[in-house]
Amino acid sequence: MSVKILDHALIKHKLSIMRDKNTSTYIFKQNLDEIAMLMAYEVSKDFPLKLKDIETPVCKTTGYEVDKQIVLVPILRAGIGLVDGFRTIMPNAKIGHIGMYRDEETLIPHEYYARFPSGLESSKVIIVDPMLATGGSAMDAIKAIKDRGAKDIMMVCLVGAPEGVKALQEAHPDVDITLAALDHHLNEKGYIVPGLGDAGDRLFGTD
Ligand code: URA
């Protein structure tokens, strides 16, 4: 449906800190948390609301309540890095998890872990993964979540490559994509250029 690249000074500032190869694991995670909060704020702008009777200390009036269960689904492992920031803004969100790998010979995707809250059919599902590179794991995760009944899905990534965005749009045109930045291309090793390296390694201090 749509691809939205957020245009926000703080996101650009914080993402530049994350891109710097000399940024420590601790500062990398801190900036990821802060960007995740800003992205959560942006993607939740048009969440459906219902009216709700409330009583202020002064009088009775009508307020609002988000009218849909929100389910956040990080794609393992790097997607976990976006969960804290989103949960700060959406504390009532339920969390699902999905881990996929592709058989290197057959290219058939396999789920090695999947656990979701009930009610996916009527929930707004936000899939999060820092890097949208080839789009392979995002496409597989979306299919796995649709197969379990989800109908209202959005994909939120920090950095996307044009190749991954195109592939995802073609495979799942009903899924809106939100990025903090759209980078130039994928290199021969599958890294986004300029990117930030391996998001999972930088987040968890592995190499
Ligand atoms: N996954 C990453 O973590 N980084 C990339 O650049 C591409 C895929």
UniProtKB/TrEMBL annotation:
Modulation of this protein's activity: Allosterically activated by GTP.
SUPFAM superfamilies cross-referenced by the UniProt entry: PRTase-like (SSF53271)
GO MF annotation, one: uracil phosphoribosyltransferase activity
Keyword Transferase annotated: yes
Annotated positions binding 5-phospho-alpha-D-ribose 1-diphosphate: R77, R102, D129, P130, M131, L132, A133, T134, G135, G136, S137, D198
Keywords, in A-Z order: Allosteric enzyme, Glycosyltransferase, GTP-binding, Magnesium, Nucleotide-binding, Transferase
Reactions this protein catalyses: UMP + diphosphate = 5-phospho-alpha-D-ribose 1-diphosphate + uracil
Glycosyltransferase recorded as keyword: yes
Pathway recorded for this protein: Pyrimidine metabolism; UMP biosynthesis via salvage pathway; UMP from uracil: step 1/1
EC number: 2.4.2.9
Endpoints of the signal sequence: none
Residue intervals of the Phosphoribosyltransferase domain: 6-206
Textual note on the cofactor: Binds 1 Mg(2+) ion per subunit. The magnesium is bound as Mg-PRPP.
Binding residue positions for uracil: I192, G197, D198, A199
A single cellular component GO annotation: cytoplasm
GO biological process: UMP salvage; uracil salvage
InterPro entries recorded: PRTase-like, PRTase_dom, Upp_B, UPRT, UPRTase/APRTase
One Pfam assignment: UPRTase
Cofactor requirement: Mg(2+)
Domain of life: Bacteria
Xref: PANTHER family: ADENINE PHOSPHORIBOSYLTRANSFERASE, URACIL PHOSPHORIBOSYLTRANSFERASE, CHLOROPLASTIC
Family: Belongs to the UPRTase family.
Function in brief: Catalyzes the conversion of uracil and 5-phospho-alpha-D-ribose 1-diphosphate (PRPP) to UMP and diphosphate.
Protein name (Swiss-Prot/TrEMBL): Uracil phosphoribosyltransferase
Species: Kandleria vitulina DSM 20405
Higher taxonomy: Bacteria, Bacillati, Bacillota, Erysipelotrichia, Erysipelotrichales
